[in-house]
């Protein structure tokens, strides 16, 4: 793992290369935005006018390169394709200004251990760079990300932040479908009888890890 002058941080694992984004890869960022769960807040999803556009994401990449931190593109070395991002962000939510680990991969690559591998590489880089502790937040319903955090050594701190979700109305059936094999589901807990709720009040789950 290296920090190359003029290129920012470059991290390498057995299967992955984590590096700064290239302008041509804005289409991948757009796909990540398009795939987001409808329960994710509106400002983190593509709006009714189609923003952010690929052109807007290209401009954002140009403005933020090179970077010595931030969200790195996750590239599969064997295929040479970018499948999402992983890195550190200064969200302002962590205590004492500690950075926050963030990651998000394209759905077609889920379940193959890439998120855990990428997150582990970022944690190792953070350790070697002198960070003492990292934070992370994840929605209660995002069981996959919660499993990744547990695998790389994060533990729940007990903090909660309530936010109104912007997803479609849910029903008891929808909640039951999501419930199978995925642990507690906010939709199931919010829907009772035949009532339909226009949106869900979901929690973000605070976790942190001490880097040794």
Notes on the protein architecture:
The chain has 212 residues and is α+β, with helices and mostly antiparallel strands. It has helices spanning 26-35, 54-63, 114-128, 143-151, 172-179, 186-190, and strands at 2-4, 8-12, 16-19, 70-76, 81-89, 100-105, 133-139, 155-164, 201-210. Strands 1-2-3-4-5-6 form a six-stranded antiparallel β-sheet, with helices on both faces. The protein has a three-stranded antiparallel β-sheet with strand order 7-9-8, covered by helices on one side. Helix 1 (26-35) packs across helix 2. The chain starts with a strand and ends with a strand.
Sum this structure up briefly.
This protein has 212 residues and is an alpha+beta fold. The chain has helices spanning 26-35, 54-63, 114-128, 143-151, 172-179, 186-190, and strands spanning 2-4, 8-12, 16-19, 70-76, 81-89, 100-105, 133-139, 155-164, 201-210.
- CATH architectural label: 3-Layer(aba) Sandwich
CATH class: Alpha Beta
Number of strands: 9
CATH topology value: Aminopeptidase
Unreliable stretches, pLDDT < 50, 5 or more residues? 1-6, 161-205
What value does the average pLDDT take?
76
Helix content: 25-40%
Q: How large is the share of residues in beta strands?
A: 25-35%
The gross shape turns out to be: globular
Largest sheet descriptor: 6 strands, antiparallel
Major beta sheet, strand line-up: 1-2-3-4-5-6
Content-based structural category: alpha+beta
Radius of gyration: 18 Å
Total domain count: 1
State the order of secondary-structure elements, H for helix, E for strand. Answer: EEEHHEEEHEHEHHE
User: Please, how many helices?
Assistant: 6
Could you give the distance between the termini?
18 Å
CATH superfamily label: Gcn5-related N-acetyltransferase (GNAT)
């Amino acid at each position: 793992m290296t920090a190359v002058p003029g290129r920012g941080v470059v991290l390498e694992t057995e299967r992955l290369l984590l590096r700064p984004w290239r302008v041509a890869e804005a289409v991948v960022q757009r796909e990540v935005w398009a795939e987001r769960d409808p329960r994710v807040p509106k400002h983190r999803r593509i709006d009714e006018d189609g923003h952010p556009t690929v052109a807007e994401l290209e401009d954002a990449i140009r403005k933020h390169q090179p970077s010595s931190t931030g969200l790195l593109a996750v590239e599969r070395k064997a295929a040479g394709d970018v499948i999402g991002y992983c890195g550190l962000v200064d969200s302002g939510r962590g205590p004492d200004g500690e950075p926050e680990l963030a990651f998000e991969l394209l759905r077609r690559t889920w379940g193959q251990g890439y998120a855990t591998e990428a997150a582990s590489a970022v944690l190792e880089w953070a350790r070697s760079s002198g960070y003492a502790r990292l934070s992370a937040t994840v929605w209660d319903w995002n069981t996959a990300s919660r499993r990744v955090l547990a695998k790389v050594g994060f533990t729940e701190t007990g903090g909660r932040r309530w936010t109104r979700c912007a997803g479609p109305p849910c029903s008891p059936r929808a909640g039951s479908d999501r419930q199978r094999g995925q642990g507690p589901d906010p939709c199931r807990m919010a829907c009772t009888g035949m009532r339909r709720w226009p949106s869900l009040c979901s929690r973000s789950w605070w976790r942190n890890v001490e880097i040794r």
